[in-house]
Amino acid sequence: MSFKMLIIVLVAVLGMAVLAFSGYRAMKQADADLDNMYNRKLTAVRLLGDEENYMRMIQVRIVKHILDPSDQEIKQSIGAAMDSYEKTWPEYKRLGSMLPEVAAMMPESEQRWDTFKKGVLEAEKLAESGDRDAAWQYYKGVEAGPTQELLKQLLQLQKIANDNAEALNENIKAENQARMTAIMITTAICLLLLLGLSLIIIRGIKASLQEMEQVCKNMADGDFRITATQSDRGDEFGAMENELYSMRSRMNKLMRQVHSSSEQMAVASEELTASSNQAAQASTQVAESASNMVDSVEKQQTSVVSSHKSVKKVDEAVVEVQEVVAKAVDNSAVVAKQAQNGNKSIDDSVAKIESVAETVRSSAEVVDRLGARSEEIGEIVGTISSIAEQTNLLALNASIEAARAGEHGRGFTVVAEEVGKLANESQRSAEKIAGLIKNIQSDTAQAVSSMQEGREAVRIGAESVEGLRSMFKSINEHVGSVSEQIQHVSDAVEKVADSAEIITKGVADIGTHSDKVSSHIQSVSAATEEQSASAEEIASASESLAKLAQDQQQALSYFKF
């Protein structure tokens, strides 16, 4: 179907393309004909009209020039008109020479133009010379002869050009009519082709629809027999036929399955009737067995009550053991906590002793550095003393030299004395500083000795504390081991308690279940009686089902499959 529709579309497109091409060619040819008519005919008419106008203009201007020879503007206009005539004539000659009758008249027209031109020029000369009468008489002779003949010939040429233009116009109309006829014929052919293809496709569609209509009618009449399974068409209608055939096949299969199921249902209803009778007999036997089971359950309930009392006593004993173990666990936890606190205190003491040892070491290092600085200060003080002695000697030498200088060295003597005093004071100060340094060095030595003793004491204390830490660590380990053992005992007791609780609960559940079993057995006894009644109802229902299967088979007999 899609392929045929595609063919129709292609034919339509092709027809439109042919029509468009034909119309385009017709329009192009008409345009060319119009151009030809304008260029060859109408242009010739226009050029001849221009030539006639130039002739008329020259006739009027030459008369004015004869009357007023001094007017140079008129003379120039006459020359311009002659030039325009001579420029236009070759263009017309090119177009007019295509016609034999026009070509034959060309030499005569050119000769008459030359005669007219010479007459006009001669009349101009006579007028400019002052002899206007002679000029007028001469021009009248030219006007009466060559001028009139040339004008008549121009009019004759115009008539020939108009006649040719009208003839060409008629030809163009005839050709356009022929082209329109061809376009209409082409359009009719395309429409006929489209109509033919459409009729062919419609016939194919109608055949498919009739086939599908017959299949639907047969199925409506109950005929689902398979006569065909595949369509010969490869289009959309063929696909619809295939789907319809497929639906008929599925309905045929469904009818067969329903027919088979109705037969099986009839057989099953007979078997169900027999089974219901057997179930009634079995329910009677179950009722008798249930009565015997009630007696056994009552005996079991008596034994369960006795077991429940014994297990309850065991549970009470386990509870007492749990209380004792719980107290032991609490005491071991207290001991472990105290041991942990002692161990923590030992750790704090060790940390403090280590801090003291570090402080002592730092102080010893400071004292050592102080001793070293004291020695350096002593060396500096010695240097100062040496400098003071030398300064004193220099001051003494300066005083001696100043005394030798006499009056001129008196001021220098005073300075030398002052320098000597300063040197003595510096030496005395240096001696005092040296004494202080010795005292500091002595104290520093004692401090270093004390620091060494303190460091040794700290070391001994640290060793003692470390031993104490080891003892507490051992205590913690033993306490942890005891706690772990007590915890194991507690866990075991809890497991025993849980087991006892489970046993107690199980015994209680057994009693409960025994009651339930007794109740269920009684229910079973009642249910067996109800089952017996139900079996009779099932037997009645199975007979109805068998009748229903027969009715269904009778209804299916309407269909053919």
Overall description:
The chain is mainly α. The protein has two domains: 2-211, Four Helix Bundle (Hemerythrin (Met), subunit A); 254-556, Helix Hairpins (Orthogonal Bundle). The protein has six helices and no strands. The chain has helices at residues 2-67, 72-96, 100-128, 132-220, 236-405, 410-556. The chain is flat, with a radius of gyration of 76 Å. It starts with a helix and ends in a 5-residue tail after the last helix. The mean pLDDT is 67.
Mean pLDDT: 67
Helix content: over 70%
For CATH, the homologous superfamily of the largest domain is named as Methyl-accepting chemotaxis protein
Strand content: under 5%
The CATH architecture of the largest domain can be given as Orthogonal Bundle
Overall form: flat
The ordered string of helix (H) and strand (E) elements is HHHHHH
How far is it from the N-terminal to the C-terminal residue, by CA? 32 Å
CATH class of the largest domain: Mainly Alpha
Based on helices, strands and strand pairing, what is the structural class? mainly alpha
Low-confidence stretches: none
